[in-house]
């Protein structure tokens, strides 16, 4: 198989991994106002993702590095044309990371509330803007003959893009609520399941509309099958959540997000960024890829490094697999909450 095709799907796999893993991080962050009744609850929520959130974010860093090395012109056009939304995503991720590290440094309630708001902001904004960005990539943006972005920020905020953002926002929110139910026990676990049900109904409506629109615009048997798999997995996840099978519910949400992202990449292939104004200006895997030698070297590096990355991440999740309850929160944290 042509290495350009291989690397297109390798990059797709890393973005799928990022959205599945960092997706529930975003959802947990967005759930703080809904599930965090007091500071102890909020500590429980943050601790569910505390050992893994930074590891989950490395997937997008690796995906971006691969994109730069394998398809440099795609990288250049994407990061120049989408500069503002990607900058906002970066700022939001920085604020979220800072909040996780600094929230517990002082006992004052106002201090913690400020960082809690930053966590919510740093989770909701990327969850929405990633959907907007990928919807634009699939639908196409104005490009000139030099493959440079020829539009404005307004061109990135069309109905399809905004629906894509709403879909990822709601899917990640549901994914996070299911993860909280999987990782906690007691009252917060029950409230997380109820929240996942309510959010899941909204996510289902948005996802069905978005995937239907995608299938209509890019009709093929593969895309139809992937969209159906995403929808069926989402329904199964909500049913599993309703009958208190959190493990199956989380698996169903992971399959839903993976199939939905795979649907977008299948709709995109073999283009990497269609030109909405003139198809002749579109970027494809053939006209933006690196040299065969570069792709070959990358392939050997990936064959050695990727199994190590997957083993390390799997080991991390195994070590921190146990449920977290209010009883696991140190007593001094509870006393600080009332100060």
UniProtKB/TrEMBL annotation:
GO terms for cellular component: cytochrome complex; plasma membrane. It comes from the Bacteria. One of its GO terms (biological process) is aerobic electron transport chain. The keyword Ligase does not apply. It is found in: Cell membrane. The chain crosses the membrane at residues 6-32, 74-98, 119-138, 158-182, 194-215, 221-240, 247-269, 297-320. This is Cytochrome bd-I ubiquinol oxidase subunit 2 apoprotein.
């Amino acid at each position: 198989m042509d290495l350009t095709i291989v690397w297109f799907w390798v990059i797709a796999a890393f973005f799928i991994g990022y959205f599945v893993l960092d997706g529930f991080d975003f959802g947990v962050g967005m759930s703080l106002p809904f599930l965090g009744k007091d500071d102890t609850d909020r500590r429980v929520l943050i601790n569910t993702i505390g050992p893994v959130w930074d590891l989950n974010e490395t997937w997008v860093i690796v995906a971006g590095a691969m994109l730069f090395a394998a398809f440099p012109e795609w990288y250049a056009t994407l990061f120049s044309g989408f500069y503002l939304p990607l900058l906002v995503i970066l700022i939001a991720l920085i604020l979220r990371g800072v909040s996780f590290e600094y929230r517990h440094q002082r006992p004052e309630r106002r201090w913690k509330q400020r960082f809690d708001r930053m966590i919510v902001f740093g989770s909701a904004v990327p969850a929405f803007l990633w959907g907007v960005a990928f919807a634009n990539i699939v639908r196409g943006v104005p490009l000139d003959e030099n493959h440079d972005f020829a539009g404005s920020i307004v061109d990135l905020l069309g109905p399809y893009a905004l629906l894509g953002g709403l879909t990822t926002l709601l899917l990640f929110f549901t994914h996070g609520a299911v993860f909280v139910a999987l990782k906690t026990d007691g009252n917060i676990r029950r409230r997380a399941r109820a929240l996942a049900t309510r959010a899941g109904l909204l996510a289902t409506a948005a996802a069905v509309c978005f995937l239907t629109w995608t299938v209509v615009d890019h009709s093929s048997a593969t895309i139809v099958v992937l969209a159906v798999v995403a929808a069926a997995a989402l329904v199964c996840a909500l049913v599993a959540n309703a009958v208190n099978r959190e493990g199956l519910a989380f698996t169903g949400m992971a399959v839903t997000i993976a199939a939905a992202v795979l649907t977008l990449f299948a709709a995109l292939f073999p283009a990497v960024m269609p030109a909405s104004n003139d198809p002749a200006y579109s970027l494809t895997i053939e006209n933006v890829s690196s040299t065969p030698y570069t792709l070959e070297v990358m392939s050997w590096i990936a064959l050695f490094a990727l199994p190590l990355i997957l083993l390390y991440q799997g080991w991390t999740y195994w070590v921190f697999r146990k449920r977290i309850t209010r009883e696991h929160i140190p007593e001094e944290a509870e006393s600080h909450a009332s100060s």
